[in-house]
Structures are given as structure tokens and as C-alpha cells.
Specification:
4 helices; two-stranded antiparallel ribbon; single chain; alpha+beta; three-stranded antiparallel sheet; TolA/TonB C-terminal domain; 158 residues
Length: 158
């Protein structure tokens, strides 16, 4: 006897109809009454808060400044050119330097000569090699390229 050929008993049909009616009644109750009450209770618990954005931070702009200048200035001065030593040349070199966003010297030009081209050249070479700076910052606080002046004084060793 095949499954499709079996007849359902009357009790079984009534049980299926009762279960379907119970499901329909529960669904209707949830959709109309219970769901509405649950939603209103949840809405009563929800509070709204007006969030104000904080004011923008004050300007973070700053100019370029030397980073551990004593150390690198001494190093530049200790690289005294041998030709200047032989000619007993000394003096102060004033330079205009461009400091990149990474804090390194990108460009150097002598604005005040020491009177010795060897010392002038050595000062710019040393600045590019040894000098480190805290880079300038724009208004947003981002590092930018900037120019500044720097002097190196060459004194003959005793």
C-alpha cells in the first residue's frame, strides 16, 4: 500500500486544523495587540540625546625648531676643513636653510660668509648631513616644509 493511498483518519485532520487555528490566532495576537504593546514599551524606554560636536581644536601651527642642536652643531664644527686649518681661517657662517616635512635640511645657502669659502661650504654640507629639526606644522597640525636661518661658528682649536 502506497503512502499516497492511505486515508487520513478524522482525528488527525481535526488535530491539524486545530494546530493551524492556534498558529493563526497567535500570529494575529502578535501582529495586532502584543506587538503594539511591546513596541510602545520599547519606545517608552528609548531616550533621545542631542549630541553637539565639540569645537575644532585650536590651531596646531608652529614654526621649525632645532632638534638637539648642541649635538649636531658640535659635530659640524668638529669637521673643520683641513684647508681652513692650514690657513688659520675661522669665523661665523650664517645660512638660510629649508627644512623638509621630515625634519631634514633639504637646501642650504650662505647668507653671511665667514670670509672663507672652505668654511662656508663645510657649514652647508654639515647642515645637510647632521642637522635635524622639528618640522613646521600647518594649522591642521601636519608637518610642512619651511625655511629658517642658522649660524655655525668655527673657532680654531687650541
Amino acid at each position: 500500500m502506497a503512502y499516497a493511498d492511505q486515508q487520513m483518519s478524522g482525528n488527525r485532520v481535526i488535530a491539524i486544523i486545530i494546530v493551524a487555528l492556534i498558529h493563526i490566532a497567535l500570529g494575529y495576537a502578535l501582529v495586532t495587540g502584543l506587538a503594539y504593546e511591546a513596541a510602545t514599551k520599547v519606545l517608552e524606554r528609548v531616550t533621545t540625546i542631542d549630541v553637539e560636536e565639540p569645537p575644532p581644536p585650536p590651531s596646531q601651527a608652529r614654526s621649525v625648531s632645532p632638534d638637539n642642536a648642541a649635538r649636531w652643531a658640535a659635530r659640524i664644527q668638529s669637521d673643520y676643513p683641513s684647508s681652513a686649518l692650514r690657513r688659520d681661517e675661522s669665523g661665523t657662517v650664517t645660512m638660510r636653510i629649508t627644512v623638509g616635512a621630515n625634519g631634514r635640511v633639504e637646501a642650504c645657502s650662505v647668507t653671511g660668509s665667514s670670509g672663507s669659502s672652505a668654511l662656508d661650504d663645510a657649514a652647508c654640507r654639515g647642515m645637510q648631513r647632521y642637522a635635524r629639526y622639528n618640522p613646521a606644522l600647518n594649522a591642521a597640525g601636519n608637518p610642512i616644509s619651511a625655511t629658517t636661518t642658522q649660524s655655525i661658528r668655527y673657532v680654531l682649536p687650541d
